[in-house]
Design goal:
The protein has about 300 residues and is of the alpha+beta class. It has 11 helices and 12 strands. The radius of gyration is 23 Å and the shape is globular.
């Protein structure tokens, strides 16, 4: 059988046996928390093969917290023995094999590669290695993830962003500690990662009309002035970037045949445009046509289709 997730892995057993267990995942700010428990007594494990990587490669990391039993991980040229309480970082673009004696429980965190404040060529040197989660920064990180997984339903979206930001900062600190490479953080890396985190935060809330520079800055514990400077350094503005993202979502939905029966204003409101006239002006400025004209133009194109859509 396979673990059904963006980076699937094959579950195997050393002897014929039914697999009994549970896997649960939940989006948590900028990361995804995953919990897996296995009650099968027969030893076995999970492997991600080159074939599975070719099938789906999300180009990310999995931070794994080994909670019970002692496992053996073969990954990135490393053969690591992971005791309860140990951590490891897996690169989903590389094959791995994880073996356990039977019956296991662990947490994992799915992380987009660009959200770590360390360059990939530096992180790769520690992929698949044993990381201590019993003391120091590793212990703080373990406590944070364990508690977050237990209380997942009690966090508001802004709370989750703050906690996931702390999680990523702690992970960066742990990796630097393990690498003994304080100089591994290149100039500007913190700003780059912060900017990417803010982009993810905005994209997850495009439909909220109350999304403002003030709420964005507060969620990331920075000043509004700092927020504006971040976007200016990328030749953009906060409002301009939000508007572009919202318009693009609307454009995609206006040409989606599954949304034929939805009005233009319904689509616009779903992506944070509360005033029809403002939306029409912004859309025309971006694409050269009004939303209604854009929709009709798509129907008239060779790839379009005939439909009776309310405008």
């Amino acid at each position: 059988m396979f673990l059904a997730e963006p980076a699937p892995a094959e579950v195997f057993r050393d002897k014929p046996a039914d697999f009994s267990g549970m896997i649960a995942s939940a989006d948590f700010g900028m990361v995804t928390l995953v919990t897996l428990s296995s009650r099968t007594a027969v030893s076995g494990g999970a492997r991600r093969t080159p074939k599975l990587i070719r099938r789906s490669d999300p180009d990310g990391y999995r931070l794994v917290f080994n909670r019970h039993n002692t496992g053996a991980l073969t990954h990135n040229g490393n053969n690591a023995t992971l005791s309860p309480g140990d951590l490891t970082l897996i690169d989903t673009s590389l094959p791995f094999e994880w073996r356990i004696p039977g019956g296991d429980y662990w947490h994992a965190v799915r992380i987009q590669r660009e959200l770590l404040p360390l360059p990939h060529h530096t992180v790769r040197t520690i992929i698949g290695a044993r990381l201590c989660g019993k003391t120091g920064i590793g212990a703080l990180l373990t406590t944070l993830v364990t508690k977050a997984a237990q209380d997942i339903d009690h966090y508001r979206p802004t709370d989750a962003i703050r906690v996931s930001t702390t999680l990523l900062d702690l992970l960066g600190g742990l990796l630097v500690h393990e690498l003994e490479a304080d100089t591994a953080l290149p100039p500007g890396s913190h700003q780059r990662v912060l900017f990417r985190r803010i982009q993810v935060f905005i994209q997850q809330r495009l439909g909220d009309p109350a999304l403002t520079p003030e709420t964005i800055a507060a969620a990331h514990c920075i000043s509004v002035r700092t927020l504006h400077r971040l976007f200016q350094s990328h030749d953009d503005t906060v409002a301009g970037w939000i508007r572009t993202q919202r318009l693009d979502r609307c454009r995609q939905e206006l040409t989606n045949p599954l949304l034929d029966e939805q009005t233009v204003q319904t689509i616009a409101a779903r992506w944070g445009f509360t005033a029809a006239a403002h939306f029409t002006r912004a859309f025309r400025a971006a694409y050269g046509l009004s939303p209604q004209e854009y929709r009709r133009h798509d129907d008239a194109s060779p790839a379009g289709h005939a439909s009776n859509r309310p405008l």
